[in-house]
Amino acid sequence: MLLLDHGLTISNENFSIVLSHQKPSRVIIAVPHDGLIANDFTGAFRTRTSGIMGRDAHVWPIANDMVWVAARRGASVDAVRFLLPRAYADANRALRGEPNTDPDTRGQIALEDNRLITLYRHYRAQLCRLVERSIETFGREQVLFIDLHGFGRQPLKAPPGGYDLILGTAYRTTIPYGDVDLVLGTFAEERGYTVFIPNSSPSFLGGDPYSAGHTTRWFAQRYKINAIQVEIAHKFRLKENTELGKKLALDIAEFFSRQYQ
Known about the structure:
Layout lengths: L1 E2 L4 E6 L2 E6 L5 E5 L28 H13 L4 E6 L34 H22 L5 E8 L13 E4 L11 H11 L4 E2 L17 H10 L2 E8 L8 H18 L2
Parallel strand pairs: 4-5, 4-6, 6-9, 7-8
Antiparallel strand pairs: 1-2, 2-3, 3-5, 7-9
Helix pairs in contact: 1-5
């Protein structure tokens, strides 16, 4: 573990990067799908046979910027990135034999190569550790868990140009305290972003993959904290649109610094 500026520390162990403060933070960000390239490990691990295999490319740089911008503004945000390629282990799915909290991914499992269970559990354990110390310091109602993803396919009835952000809360069942999802949505719209918050109607034919996945629901249920699955549109994650991604990170970090100082 290395000590950085603003009381931040960074570690890299068992395919998980942890960027966290020495003292507890009120916001914890999970990045499960922006890992390494599957081809780097061809022949090493058994691949999954169901579910999405690809990366949510360039989500981590946005999360990283959120952490650092918030820190410079006096707010504390922690983040954990899972590096194992999604083709081998999906950290937003349940292990075989464990309850799957997401009805849209029934039948899908996190991994099929049991050698990778230790890595999956290490990632989850780091998130749990950060959440638990935050609850102990601030209380459950003061902690926000963000599962950060990227999306390309737009929901039904999306406006021209599509949505920029999707805030999934399993139809607000992962928000036990207040209206942080609605407040974040309004804040983002005031900054010029188009925001979709899934309601009781499926946003896709046959399901609602953006309403909140297994991780968001699991942390909300286990710890009774506010949890949001935040989906970032493709355009913010393109190399040629780096400045768009940086501005998004700056704006969301401003929200964190206002609401979770």
